[in-house]
Design a protein that fits this description.
Layout lengths: L1 H5 L11 E2 L9 E5 L6 H9 L6 E3 L9 H5 L1 E6 L6 H12 L3 E6 L2 H10 L3 E3 L11 H12 L2 H8 L1 H4 L6 H11 L3 E7 L3 H13 L6 E5 L17 H4 L2 E7 L5 H16 L4 E5 L5 H22 L9 H8 L2
Parallel strand pairs: 2-3, 2-4, 4-5, 5-6, 7-8, 7-9, 9-10
Antiparallel strand pairs: 1-6
Length: 321
C-alpha cells in the first residue's frame, strides 16, 4: 500500500488506448456508472467542469431520466475489477435499450462483454491495487473518452510536478492527532469530491468511521448537532473536524469556515484547517488526496490494523452472493 501511494503520480503519464474507437460516438452528455473507487474520476471531472453535465450514477441499472435524454448520452461503465455487480447490471440494461456505451476496466466480465459486443473499451493497467489507488488511471481514461485533451495534458504534468513523498510526514502527524477520534471532513461544495475522497480513504485504508459534508449547506443543519451541553457532551467529544480550505473558495464560504471554527473551538472541539495548495485545480485536488492517503495509512498502522486483513466489504459481498 505504501508503494501504491508513493507511485500514484506516475499514473498521470498513462496514455489510454480505446479499443474499437471508431464505434465511439460523441454524445450530448456523459453518464458515468461506477461504485466505490470506480466512480471517483467522474466525480472529479463533474466538479472541475460542471457545464459538461456529467451524471454520476452509483446504483443498479440506469439513472431515471427521459428516454430521449438517455439516447443523447454516452454511458461510461466503470468497474476497476470488471466484476462489479451494479455495473454489470447497468451494462445489460444499456445494451437492452441500445444506448451508446463505453467501458473502463482492467478486465473481468465487463471487458469480456464489451469485446464480445463490439463496445468501445479502455483496458486499464492492472497494478494489483485497490480501485481508489487507481484514480489517476481512471481519470486519464475518462478524459480520453470525454475528449478533454487540454485537461488531460494538464493532468499529465502532475506525473512530474507532484511528489507524493513530500506529504508523508504531514499525513503521519495528522494521523497522530486523529487517533481515538472520528474524522469529519468539511469543504466547499465545489470541493465535495475531495472531501468524499478523504472520507473513503479514512474508511477503507484507515478502517475508521469518517464522514463528510459541504459548506454552506452544513451550516443550516449539521452545525446545530454540535451545540454541546452537559447532557450531550459524550456525543460530540470523539469528533475531529478537518476543514479543506481552498484559496479559490469565495469570501462568503471562507467567512463561514472561520465562524464555524470559532464556534466549535469555543465548544472545546478540535478543528484542523488544511489548505488545498497548488498552482492549478488538479494539483490542489490530488495533493490533498495524497495527504488523505498518507493520513489513512498511518492511522491504520497506529491502530495495528494489517494491510492484508480481510475487509468487511469482502465479507459483505459473500453474504449477498
Amino acid at each position: 500500500m505504501r508503494n501504491a501511494i508513493i507511485n500514484f503520480t506516475k499514473q498521470f503519464a498513462y496514455e489510454p488506448i480505446i479499443e474499437n474507437e471508431a464505434a465511439l460516438s460523441g454524445r450530448k452528455r456523459l453518464i458515468v456508472i461506477g461504485m466505490g473507487g470506480s466512480h471517483l474520476a467522474g466525480d472529479i471531472l463533474a466538479a472541475i467542469k460542471p457545464f459538461l453535465g456529467i451524471i454520476v450514477h452509483k446504483n443498479y441499472g440506469l439513472p431515471e431520466m427521459p428516454e430521449k435524454d438517455l439516447k443523447e448520452s454516452l454511458v461510461v461503465l466503470s468497474s476497476y475489477s470488471g466484476n462489479t455487480e451494479e455495473v454489470l447490471d447497468a451494462y445489460q440494461e444499456a445494451k437492452k435499450r441500445n444506448l451508446a456505451m463505453t467501458v473502463m476496466s482492467i478486465g473481468g466480465k465487463l471487458l469480456e462483454m464489451a469485446r464480445k459486443d463490439g463496445v468501445p473499451a479502455i483496458q486499464l493497467p492492472d497494478m494489483g491495487i485497490a480501485p481508489r489507488f487507481a484514480l489517476g488511471f481512471s481519470l486519464m481514461a475518462l478524459l480520453k473518452i470525454a475528449g478533454e485533451e487540454e485537461l488531460r495534458e494538464s493532468a499529465r504534468k502532475l506525473s512530474g510536478s507532484l511528489n507524493a513523498v513530500q506529504y508523508e510526514d504531514r499525513g503521519k502527524m495528522l494521523a497522530e492527532k486523529l487517533r481515538g477520534k472520528i474524522p469529519l471532513i468539511y469543504a466547499s461544495l465545489k470541493n465535495q469530491p475531495v472531501a468524499y475522497n478523504w472520507k473513503i480513504r479514512l474508511n477503507e485504508t484507515g478502517r475508521v468511521p469518517a464522514f463528510y459534508n459541504v459548506f454552506p449547506e452544513l451550516n443550516h443543519n449539521e452545525l446545530e448537532g454540535f451545540d454541546v451541553r452537559e447532557t450531550t457532551r459524550g456525543l460530540s467529544g470523539d469528533f475531529y473536524f478537518i476543514f479543506l480550505q481552498d484559496p479559490d473558495d469565495g469570501p462568503r464560504i471562507v467567512k463561514r469556515m472561520d465562524a464555524m471554527k470559532t464556534l466549535l473551538e469555543n465548544k472545546n472541539l478540535p478543528v484542523e484547517i488544511l489548505r488545498l495548495d497548488g498552482n492549478n485545480t488538479l494539483y490542489k485536488i490530488f495533493s490533498s488526496i495524497i495527504l488523505a492517503d498518507w493520513t489513512a495509512y498511518y492511522l491504520a498502522a497506529g491502530y495495528g490494523i494489517g494491510e492484508n486483513e480481510v475487509q468487511l466489504i469482502e465479507k459483505f459481498k459473500k453474504l449477498i452472493e
